[in-house]
Amino acid sequence: xxxxxxxxxxxxxxxxxxxxxxxxxxxxxxxxxxxxxxxxxxxxxxxxxxxxxxxxxxxxxxxxxxxxxxxxxxxxxxxxxxxxxxxxxxxxxxxxxxxxxxxxxxxxxxxxxxxxxxxxxxxxxx
Length: 126
Description:
Elements (H helix, E strand, L loop, with lengths): L1 H19 L5 H5 L3 E3 L13 H16 L6 E5 L2 E6 L2 H11 L6 E4 L3 E3 L13
Antiparallel strand pairs: 1-5, 2-3, 2-4
C-alpha cells in the first residue's frame, strides 16, 4: 500500500511538472481542464442543495463579469447571501446565519475543474 501511494504521488508530481513546462502527457491532451461556466448543468434532482447550485449556475456569469473570480460565494435557496475572500470566512458566515440548515459555499471560477475519484471515474493504480 505504501509503495502504491508513493508511486501515485510521483506520477502526480511528474504530471504537474510536465504541465508547468508546457508539455503534456497523452491523457492531458485528450482531457479538458474542466467545464466552462456557460456549460454547467442544472440540477433537477430536488436534492438538498439543488436550488443553491442552480442559483450559482444562474449568477456565475454576472459574478465573473464583476471581477469576483477567486472569491467564495455563500448561497441559501435562490439568494446570494454574501461573497467572501476565502472559503473559511464564507463557511463561518453560513454556520452563523444557518446553524442547522444546509447552505452552499463555492469558489467563483470560470472553469469548474473535473473531480477525479479513484474507483469511480478513475481506475485504481496498479
